[in-house]
Design brief:
This protein has 306 residues and is α/β, with parallel strands linked by helices. The strands form 3 sheets. It has a 6-stranded mixed beta sheet, with helices on both faces. The two termini are 35 Å apart.
């Protein structure tokens, strides 16, 4: 049984704008799945159909094996959603917002209290439980929405741009919490413009453009499409002379920074050996750019030209 099964899903707004052109998409239980695409590609329409905010024009959608046309309330109970926009009353307290959500799903009050305390603690909000939401920082509001989405302990969590506007340090801590959720069995569907999030977190990725899925693949298979990658080397000390190598071409950026291009079939271990042979010590090594972002832009650009 799939966590999400979508067959020939279509949506047309006002009998004019075709948002979805017959989307087929299966997401396995326990997966960490990224749904990527440019603005207006159809991501939000799919999510809104799953969450009952938008009615589909045609097609079949099953959530945890339940057809939404036959028992939408049951199907919807399997999903927790963290939307892009803050959509709670800023004048209500943190705990009050979460407990109200529990009530919407019929969670027993005693159970809801325990869960509320657990998720507030996990997300670093326990000391803010009585604080009005308007007094929270943007990052705390994001974490509040995650706690609210989890209060009925859904099997599927949809994260729609969950770290938008969140600083890097907080983003990393949210990543760790989300990875732990997934490890414990929660299926997670992520949309994001921070493509390093998808590369860091997800196992499978679908890219949608102009209402159609243009690629649906394991992340590793996607990244294997690259013919080369550029590595940035940060040296511990200046080189006394130019770096000469028969195997690699080193491009000097400044006295302590070099770039080197690795072809797909070249091992980074061979690069380390080459540096060691020349007695060059490095303090840091990183990819020049996010590889998934490069691939995403190539695919979307290619789709525009078709």
């Amino acid at each position: 049984m799939k966590a999400i099964s979508i067959k020939n899903l279509k949506k047309t707004y006002n009998n004019k704008f075709v948002a979805l052109k017959g989307v087929d998409l299966d997401i396995e239980q326990g997966d960490f799945f990224a749904l990527l695409g440019p603005n207006g590609a159809g991501k939000s329409t799919i999510i809104n159909i799953l969450c009952s905010l938008v009615n589909k024009s045609s097609g079949k959608v099953k959530i945890n094996g339940i057809d939404i046309d036959k028992n939408f309330n049951k199907a919807k109970s399997f999903i927790g959603v963290v939307p892009q926009e803050f959509n709670f009353s800023i004048f209500e307290g943190v705990e009050q917002i979460i407990m109200q959500q529990a009530g919407f799903y019929g969670v027993d009050k005693k159970i809801a209290k325990k869960r509320c305390e657990f998720y507030l603690k996990e997300l670093g909000l326990l000391e803010k439980r009585k604080t009005q939401a308007r007094m929270l920082s943007g990052g705390m509001k994001r974490r509040l929405m995650i706690a609210r989405a989890l209060i009925h302990e859904p099997k599927i969590l949809i994260l729609d741009e969950p770290t938008a506007g969140v600083d890097i340090e907080l983003r990393k801590s949210m990543w760790e919490f989300i990875k732990k959720l997934n490890k414990n069995g929660t299926t997670i569907i992520l949309t994001t413009h921070y493509l390093e999030e998808a590369e860091e977190l997800c196992r499978n990725i679908a890219i949608i453009d102009k209402g159609e899925i243009i690629i649906n693949s394991p992340k590793k298979a996607l990244l294997n499409k690259f013919n080369s990658q550029t590595i940035v080397l940060e040296l511990k000390e200046k080189c006394k002379s130019k770096i000469n190598s028969k195997e690699f071409k080193y491009e000097k950026i400044d006295d302590l920074t070099y770039e080197v291009k690795l072809n797909k079939d070249e091992s980074i271990n061979n690069l380390f050996k080459d540096l060691e042979k020349q007695n060059i010590k490095i303090s840091n090594l990183k990819n020049k750019s996010n590889r998934l972002e490069e691939l995403f832009l190539d695919l979307v650009e290619g789709n525009k030209n078709e």
